[in-house]
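Annex B, item 7. Sequence and structure tokens for protein A, then protein B.
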Amino acid sequence: MKSILRDLIDKLQLNKQDKTDNALTTTSKEVIGAINENKNNIDLKADKSSKKSSFSSTGWYRIARYDVSQSIPAIYKVKGANANSLDIKLKRAYNNTTNEFYDIKLASVYESSEFIVISKKIKTQLITKIRHTVDTTNMYAYIEIYYSGINDNPILVELLNNSDNEGIFWKAIAPEVTTETVSGVTVYSTCDLTSSTNSIVTGKQMEEKVDIHELTNGQDLNTCINKRYYRTVLTSIIASLLNKPIEINGGEIFLEYKPMYNGNNYGEQILTSKIGTNVRNYIRCNDNGTWSAWTQVATTDKIDTLLLPFASGVTDWTVFGQRTHYEKNSFGEVKINCWCQFTNTTKADNVNGFLLATMPSGYRPIKSISGIAKIYLNGVYTGTDTTTCGVVVTDTGIVTLLGFDYIGTNNVAMFSIEYSTT
């Protein structure tokens, strides 16, 4: 019995496992060595990695590394950007007044990547840029930051969801000094942290890049279906665009295309036109290359209602409380409702007419328009003392009665006429 106990004690003291005992299948047969080995393997395979390091001088630093040489299949080995997206958190602390924090996503696909700032909070900013690079000589991809400080500052780098599809991990590393350009190193994407948003990005914005395409001279809007957003602020380009709303010839425009199918041949275009403070929206649909006409979207803007600017000698007729006015809606459509009183000493022929009012700029028709006016003669408001004549609003804003073959006192003209100003 004593012999057995002594053997057990000896084994514990030696901290060894017999090499013939395969219960612990690790490179090291020592128990402590095996524990450390297993822990190291777990750390390497975890979907997170972190490193706290000090930064003391201005420049670019590599803070995370991805082993490109392990990429599968072999064609990806020189790429360093292939389904290896990850989440990055940067925490810099110096004292209570100069901390900064970033929550950043690197979205990485085959030969392409971009940084998306989810949120940030800054007291004093020393981390100003972040970029994704690939060193094809040494077969590593890197996350690098630009540190603009000159004093020693600790920065905690945390990497989350840092595995690619093949189980190869990004790993936080002690900072390695690098430069703006390095031979054999390709920069896949860079993000300026001084200008990126402070606010939280929505899920949809995290999923897709806001790619705005600048419209060019003579571009056909029927072809604007391969990108989500288009725009221009140049009047010369707007005037030259093909298949735009006919009344849009200046200002600024923003065009959005919404595909409604897997391909882009079925969808909706939304065009916003801005001229000063006047904004209009138009929509149309694409049905496999057949486009509908542009339709202006109605708004809830308040309609302008103004008193008609009468000519000399013309006044409101207010016997029944009516007021002569004109109004314009958000589509640029004007309606004149007239109940006016006047005295004429000459007949209103079909050439010169009788001037009632002059419409101000912005309320004039794009071309002259005519209608019919009812006239009560000499202030007598009965059916036996009435006649009709023409009323015209010219493109210069002149409102006149034509063919009024009477001379009288306190005549009353009643009419309503509508037209477009655009």
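Protein B:
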Amino acid sequence: MVRVWLQPDGPGLSSGVNPLIRKVILLSCLAWGAGVPCWADADEAKAREILNRLTAFYRGLEAFEVESVMTTSMKNPQLVEPLTQELRQTYKVKRPGQFVLESRGDGMLFSAPNAYLDDWQGVLLLEGQGRIEASGVATPAAFLRNPAFGFNPNAGGNIVFDQNIGLSFLNKLLFADVGQGWERDLKSVTLVGESVINDVKVDQLALTTETHQFGEAATMVLNIWVQQGKEPFLLRLKPDLSNLFSQGDGAPEMEVGMLGEWHSWNTKPSFKEDTFKAPKADDEMPVFPSFEAMMQAQTAAQNPALALTSTEAKAFTLKDLDGEEFQLSKHRGKEVVVLAFWGSWLSPEAEVLTALASIEKQLKDAPVEIVAVNVGEEEARVRAYLDEKKLGLRVVIDAEQKVAPLYEVRAVPQTVVIGKDGEIFQVHIGSDEAFEEELLRELRLILEAPAENTP
């Protein structure tokens, strides 16, 4: 699932300006134009004035309700037909502490959340996934910034709500604690021109911001259409995502298009008493204390091996290629054991034995036993593979595939880290470039932990 975060990084003023001069310039500009940089040209100054007026308008609303449609399309040469999602949402807010967001859509590309906040009780419903409940939530902004409901500062925002760029942008306009002055740090704000939407005159702005995609800086342009007049309603948003989905290296180009539209704005709504109350819990929908707990439960259901963490490792005995028995129980209280279930048919990207051999050399004096458990192959094939790779790891063969089921092995590679106490510390499904580094860090963490009495 592709996620795009509106996370401006660049400073509002050139970092090359003397700090004292920078403060004087900023203060004079703030006094002159409500946050509009005085070095901007006339068009940019007017564009920032419109943006500041838009932000002030929304943060000053005591209550509102609005309907929106976010249309998303995704295509590349590998898709027979483009994937398209139309997500319709009803958004109602009554400050200081009530809001409801109801979504109607299939959630095929991005989440279709239903959120409720009333009387300090927050509820998030994700169809087909679960219900998340948390108390002590004072405001809509506190809801959106609550880790229980998907907020993750390392991701730059809320994992659930910020998938919808239109909703994410609107929330930044509405709530200072969510926006946190991001508009002052935009790379540029341009007045594109005037147009008409449904007989309403609008100003079109282009907002350029810095974001990150797959760990690398990228530029994103948000085109927004703002109603002219005393009520500067946000009517349309269309992000230019071309820079974010450029694959490079000959990979198929991914084309992603988004269009957000708002209509039926009402700033003097009459809400019913139960407008913001969440539906009663459904016995068929699981309830979780947090979004992370829900994700963990889903992951464990999809791969039962991950649920083995903190359980006792199942005992077994297998012979290695030298004819010696490896008996897991004999290592309890003495060594940390790493079991790597593997097969010689694995692609280079999924091959873990080289990484394990490297770790074994780095921890050669540590009480760590690394055992590669081959799943179901003939001994001759295993020996030929090891000779070719020149790997000196200890290898046992689960010829009858009786050990793999004990550790819920559904696919290889799967790596199981077992502490000296006989409990499973971690389970790794698959492999990637960070596998060696992560596993080495885990082993050192276990080895540096205070010693405990082990029966």
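Comment on protein B: The first helix runs from residue 19 to 33.
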